[in-house]
Amino acid sequence: MKGSRIETVRGPVRRPWRFDLVLERGGTVSQQTQLARALVQEIQRGRLPPGSMLPGSRTLATQLGVNRKVVVAAVEELVAQGWLETLPASGTRVAALLPPLAVADTEVRPPRTARPVRSEAPLVSITDGLPDTRIAPLEELARAYRRALRAFSRTASGYTDAVGDPGLREVLSGFVNQARGLSTTSAEVFLTRGSQGALGLYALSMLTRGHVVAAETPGYAPAWRAFEFAGAEVVHIPVDGGGMRTDILEETARTLRGRLKAVYVTPHHQYPTSVSMTPERRMHLLHLAERFDFTVLEDDYDYEYHFEGNPLLPLHATAGSRRVVYIASLSKLLAPAIRLGYLVASPECIRKLGETRTVLERQGDPVLERAIAELFEDGTLQQHARRARRVYKERRDHLLGQLSGTPSLRAGLAYSVPTGGLALWLRLRQRSAESFAARAREERLLIAPGSTYLHEGRLAALRFGFAAHDTDELSRICDALSRCVSR
Predict the structure, then answer these.
(1) pTM of the prediction?
(2) What DSSP string runs through 306-326?
(3) Rg (Cα) of the chain, in Å, rounded?
(4) Separation between Cα atoms, residue 145 and residue 358, nearest integer Å
(5) Using CB atoms within 10 A as the burial measure, which of 35, 155, 184, 269 is most buried?
(6) CA nearest 146: which of 341, 368, 378?
């Protein structure tokens, strides 16, 4: 048995690793066929993934103890079949796209011509209000990240406080006080891995079996899952054009007799409908929190994107940390992949969150937190927020023009224009959302039917996230939607 070395290519780097091939001598199957079959078996097993480089024919022949002509013939056959490919001046590697054959057999060659394969356009998702990462200051973030990483390496420090980088907490405290009307200190700021991380930590720290959380419906289902994961029961309060129905919430709180521990709301731009909670309901909600002794979980996921008038100040700006836990995220400002959010709460709540995180993950991402703090301090994020707000408003207005200017869309869809946010809530006049989603997929559009945002039942509506698409892309999407409506 002879050994050979194979090099796996990952980008420009070649990483050698060893595997063994066994070739019989004097058997009924030629060594050429044995070698070809052995190579294909290694490819199919995953030991030779696409892009893996083979040794040169002379090297492989020497290692296997066979004539070089055997290696050359076997390799040429596998190149012809599509298992391998040759690179000028580089050698031979496993093909990126492998042939649809169960096994390779050098005794019977497959046809040299193949039926052309129809390539489908990729699915375009409009299911959520995601930001456009093409306009985000990711290069600036990368440079700041490298500087933060070097700073940590010089100090040989890797562990930080579970509540997050003190510099960013101080920056965020000043930011929310100045820009959002809060009155807080860095001791009340807890850094999380996005808003979902904040919800999960809060649920595990503050809720337990027997507790009840009230939430909007239609609403943000991942939040419901976080509360249920901690053992709490979720009750669903309907939403209309003025936000959560606080009159129904009051009846629910009275019925639960002290079991209601928290109410989860998205009052600025309700998720998914984008409506704003009216001032009267906001005050009623805070009154109910005092009366029935529950905490308001305020998820302010896209405060930066308000296009008309003045944005409503957060509930936390009125009630403070005693009654309101304020949750926000940088994912909508930069990119969903940037998992960094924050939570503003009472010192007692912050302490419990820190204890939970210490058990679960020890800390957040101190390098990213330090880099984000730098971008706040030098004004990069503030400048980007101003630009993004202008760009997204232009895109929203373009979309509104497409919807109102296309007869089929005007006849088939109803909507209200929100004052801000990154998505429109479209109501279907006649079709079910499920059948519409199926038609949209045939047009290579990925949409989520209204039932996605309900705990039960169906809803003839969909959420159209427009921010991630430029005006040309939005026009093409509306053309596809028009065909769906007309069918």
Answers:
(1) 0.75
(2) B-SSPPPPPHHHHH-TTTEEE
(3) 29
(4) 24
(5) 269
(6) 368
